[in-house]
Description:
Rossmann fold
Amino acid sequence: MRIIAGAxxxxxxRAPARGGLRPTSDRAKEALFSSLMPLLPDASVLDLFAGTGxxxxxxxxxxxxxxxxxxxxxxxxxxxxxxxxxxxxxxxxVVADEVGRALAGALPAAPxxxxxxxxxxxxxxxxxxxxxxxxxxxxxxxxxxxVERDGRAPAPTWPEAFEVLRxxxxxxxxxxxxxYVREPDPTSPPDRSxx
Length: 195
């Protein structure tokens, strides 16, 4: 496992001593980040179910401003903190907590422009949907959310505030994507700056 491109290109990442994590393949990661390049400069990124931190650290290497990692497993947290040190880039925050509890509170560096959700494949689809609903209050307008799931799992049920983008399959992995489009405040006066 390594950083593919950017300032930390080639740095090797450590996996937890105990197994159970399913790292995103280099092929899927490269394709994903190629599509995200316009969004990355100076972005605030949230990496949920962060595991080793590979996705968030790849974003940081490719010019994201800061990444907040949320992970609860002690062995994954040990690997994550090691990997942050190896990559050696500023702008990281680690929240050692369960994702639902973390989203119920305040998160460092919110609102976020880009969110990775890479839960265990056996996490129930309704729990993924609950994460998407809880996430809304932490998002910047037009934030992109990427949900990684097993190709056989049902697609996420996106809240109304999201525009669903075309999913992409890489082997047995499906990457679902949505864009958060904030509803206009009906009490705000219309924008007449262009008149």
